[in-house]
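Dear Dr. V.,

Thank you for agreeing to look over these. As mentioned in my earlier message, I'm a first-year student in the group and I'm still getting used to reading structure tokens, so any feedback on how I've presented them would be very welcome. I ran two proteins. I've put each sequence directly above its structure. The first is here:
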Amino acid sequence: MWNKTAGAIKYMAKHYANDYDYFMKADDDSYVIVENLRKILRKENPDKPFIMGRRFKPFIKQGYMSGGGGYVLSRAGLLNIANGLENNTVCQSNKYVFAEDVKLGSCAEATNVSVIDSLDAEGRECFHPFSPSHMLTKNANGYPEWYLKYNYHRIDTVSFTNKHIYT
């Protein structure tokens, strides 16, 4: 999976970086509420290198974005990572880690791409890695152990009255 993601980042940087401000990676089973995502991104600067999504904490000092809920790269973030990918010593430092999201997080940190949290004004996550039915029926004790361990911020049930949910 990492090779596909790295290839896509390099391709987008080469062919689309001048045409778009932000680039989103999401799985084929993700649902994105584009209006909400646009609203939060209006407050950001695409020329500031950042990545935004659900932040996980182990393995990478600044954390990394969970692949399950999708993530957004600013144009500058995309270009920094693409340049790092061209230099194997920069973005291949975790060659024994095979998780795509961890490798991307390592590369982001190595290329000075900052992590931006995706919390709303009430401290609730806006990028969600599980289906709505799964998120609504679980309390913090009902999630897999790895999820409780990896999540950077506190875990609560999802409120779909949250007007700022993105995925």
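The second protein is here, in the same arrangement:
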Amino acid sequence: MTIPKIIHQTYKNHNLPGTYKMCQTEIKRLHPDFEYRFYTDEDMDRLMKTEFPEYYDKFNELPRMIMKIDMFRYFLMYKYGGLYTDMDYLMFNNFDMLNEKVVIPCNREDENGEPICLGNCIFASQPNHPYWKSLMDTLFTIDRTKLDYNTDKNIDGNVLGTGPLFVFAMWKRYSKINDDICVSKRSLFHPPTKNNNQYIEGLKKDGCYGMHICTGLWRNNKL
């Protein structure tokens, strides 16, 4: 089995900001043979209700929309597989790692080049992979409703709750049992973000797949 040629992206509605439209155009241009699927918040709710009814109530207990959006992308990977990217992820090259079971990029490394955090703005997977199921099932085992998100510290707590550090922690647990997840080097998917044409052209030539522009709309409750 290979990773299906499906691109998944989500946003609250079809009125995309200019940066998002630009990133959407590029990913479609670079993947003409991929099926493109876009989900609004209404689509997300409907799909969770119809395809994952046993998770639906717990899913709706998540206290912030960004947490639902985080978890929803894990459900998409489990159900359909394919390539997921945030709307503010700018692709440079065609994603061609289709023979892997799961690809999750490193977005922070220690001084030895070892991952200390994984990204959740882009990843890819075959369908029905047990790693994603383990993330889904935390809806029943982690009570995220008691977390408070009124300070910067607790916004970072949201990252621990459903985002990159959560993905990393669950990978560390999973990797003790299985080693079938490809954790790529940071330089492949998560180079430092710079608005510099010469820098970006160099990344493209070096085979970098893309760059996270990091608009961070969720921090201002705009998602």
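From my reading of the second output: Confidence is low (pLDDT under 50) at residues 149-159. Strands lie at 6-10, 35-39, 82-85, 89-91, 102-109, 115-118, 122-125, 181-184, 210-212. Does that match how you would interpret it?

Kind regards,
E.
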